[in-house]
DNA sequence: TTGTACGCGTTATCAC
DNA sequence: GTGATAACGCGTACAA
């Protein structure tokens, strides 16, 4: 255990105290600013700290103080471009109040989600943010006895230690579909997300609702199953053609699905939007760089992430918070186009051009 | 401090011991399997654990044992699609050996990088993986005295506690450029990455080297400055046109840059690859879904991440590791096309079609 | 095989 | 203001 040159020379608070000729408590006080100390001692300690390059042991500190300044963040996968923005927002929002996020992925698996939650509790995180968690509500309540929980993209029975920030997928999908209808489309296909995803179901519902509200009627034939991934969109689009159904527009449950669908259209030599209009959902950073730029429903993920970070911190500090559902907004770009007998007798409506949106 | 129904009912090892009628050390032994215990006691303890829903306090455990089973992962930004794959690989690779990654972003800022390193050390992580870190080598060596370091995308003086896994950007860029030359291109523009990024410089060098090797010669006029982001690619491409230089192909320092450049081409009504060939670098998951699918240099990021995870674990266990530089491979898709007087007297070469590549 | 006692590095509660 | 002293929850020699 002696210094062989390789052993980490981790200095302790006690050694600093000895070097500075004060007691450990004084050093601790200076470190935390928890009380006034004579300037002379203050200086001596600071010099010792600098000299030995002392770094307080976070674990010991947490063990003694009972708080870790750590927030567990349960995401489905760190690698999805969609979650990435959320994580960035959370990280940024947590930075200023001095908390560190602990990101883990559960791979869309409820069992994994629960084991990750156990890990969080074992690590004594001060709070937890869950993204699209599928854990049942009873378990959430149980977990919330250990640390405040903030659930994103879902609605649960709120309490002082369990909050939720729902996202209005239904409204977003309805707006998008209505936009296509307004542009004259009647045969609008839909490529759905995973059957067991709450938000995927809501988006399907929004699509259906808009159709019915407009008197167009919902046609199951026009719906194909996707999986929120590019491959799924690609295959679903292909099946739509193989089945021979006719349509002038396609609404995809998310942007990645739209990317896949767009490739199938390209393969088949169909133009977007001249032949087929295309709409996505999420507004991923790259969607404004699709060819042509994708019309989609924007989810302000980064901002939501920041909101969530601020929210969980407030909960930890036992302050009350109120979270109103996040509204989504349609971003009209260039993959949609008016179709059919135009109400106004224009000859060839020029394709609209919205300015390219900046990506951070 | 009494149970008011809200206080986290965190059971301790000692309470388990009392409930099971054994000593704390016995419980500890059972938890860690560090010694044989009478089946009867074993069972009693396990029942108590289940009954009280006991979860060992990770902090206390780490403080006592001196290891945290945690790996600090310093990334530049969690939100980049490029890093996302690395992180996923790292997380997966760390899972089996029982380590937890601690992801933090330094936002391409050396000062942030160093403060994050301090945090890692303060948290007593068992090892650290750095992605594209710009910290000077002397500091790295200093940090490596506290925990083994593995540096990705860079080459440093290796030791038993400091390893690096270089990525051969130069070779990748050279291959890509050579491919364009082979296809008959002579005027090949290049949109560079940030001036202070080592890999960006290497890619520029590879481009230049290929040109010189082929006797085409390097022309500074054909080089524009980008920033590895879509906006940068968009603007750089635009400047290329404004400056009036002529070219038949564009090689972008990374895929995101290519996305931006592609949009400018679209805006100007130029077809890819019929009018201009386009090549990227990285092979992001969405690049195979670009319209048309992007020819690019593939970096096996996920696999590199797994390799890194395994590597750092070995270093922690004081096993020797050997990391050979990662070769990159050109993936020929549909944004490049033969040009000019074709050596073989074909009339109109049909655009090549590679099968769409799966994403994860 | 099992229990006791101490240490891990801090914070917090006391007196002084 | 400052310094002992006792937690914090667990691992682990050491002894039994």
TrEMBL record, chains A, B:
SMART domains, A to Z: HTH_LACI
Annotated region described as Disordered, given as residue ranges: 332-360
Family matches, as PROSITE patterns: HTH_CROC1 (PS50943), HTH_LACI_1 (PS00356), HTH_LACI_2 (PS50932)
Domain of life: Bacteria
UniProt feature coiled coil, ranges: none
InterPro entries registered for this protein in UniProt: Cro/C1-type_HTH (IPR001387), HTH_LacI (IPR000843), LacI/GalR-like_sensor (IPR046335), Lambda_DNA-bd_dom_sf (IPR010982), Peripla_BP_I (IPR028082)
Residue stretches making up the HTH cro/C1-type domain: 10-36
Keywords, sorted A to Z: DNA-binding, Repressor, Transcription, Transcription regulation
The keyword DNA-binding appears for this protein: yes
HTH lacI-type domain segment(s): 11-65
Protein name listed in UniProt: Catabolite control protein A
Recorded name of the encoding gene: ccpA_3
């Amino acid at each position: 255990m002696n210094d062989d040159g390789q052993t980490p020379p981790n200095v302790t608070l006690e050694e600093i105290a000895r070097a500075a000729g004060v007691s450990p408590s004084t050093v601790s006080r200076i470190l935390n600013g928890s009380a006034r100390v004579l300037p002379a001692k203050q200086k001596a300690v600071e010099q010792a700290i600098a000299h030995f390059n002392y770094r307080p042991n976070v674990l010991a500190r947490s063990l003694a103080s009972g708080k870790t300044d750590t927030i567990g963040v349960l995401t489905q996968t760190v690698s999805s471009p969609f979650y990435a923005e959320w994580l960035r927002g959370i990280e940024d929002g947590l930075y200023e109040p001095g908390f560190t996020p602990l990101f883990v992925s559960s791979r869309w698996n409820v069992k994994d989600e629960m084991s990750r939650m156990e890990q969080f509790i074992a690590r004594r995180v001060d709070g937890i943010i869950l993204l699209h968690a599928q854990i049942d509500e009873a378990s959430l309540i149980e977990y919330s006895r250990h640390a405040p929980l903030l659930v994103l993209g879902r609605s649960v029975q709120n309490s002082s230690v369990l909050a939720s920030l729902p996202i209005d997928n239904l409204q977003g999908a309805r707006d998008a579909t209505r936009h296509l209808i307004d542009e004259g489309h009647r045969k609008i296909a839909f490529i759905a997300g995973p059957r067991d995803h709450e938000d995927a179901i809501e988006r399907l519902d929004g699509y259906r609702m808009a159709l019915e509200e407009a008197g167009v009627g919902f046609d199951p034939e026009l719906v194909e199953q996707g999986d929120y991934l590019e491959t799924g969109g690609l295959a679903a689009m292909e099946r739509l053609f193989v089945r021979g159904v006719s349509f002038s527009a396609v609404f995809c449950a998310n942007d990645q699905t739209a990317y896949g669908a767009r490739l199938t259209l390209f393969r088949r030599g169909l133009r977007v939007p001249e032949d087929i209009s295309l709409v996505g959902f999420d507004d991923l950073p790259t969607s404004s760089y699709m060819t042509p730029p994708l019309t989609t429903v924007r989810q302000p993920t980064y901002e939501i992430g920041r909101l969530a970070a601020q929210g969980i911190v407030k909960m930890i500090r036992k302050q009350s918070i109120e979270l109103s559902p996040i509204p989504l907004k349609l971003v009209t770009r260039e993959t949609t186009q008016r179709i059919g007998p135009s109400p106004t007798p224009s000859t060839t409506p020029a394709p609209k051009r919205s300015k390219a949106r900046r990506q951070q």
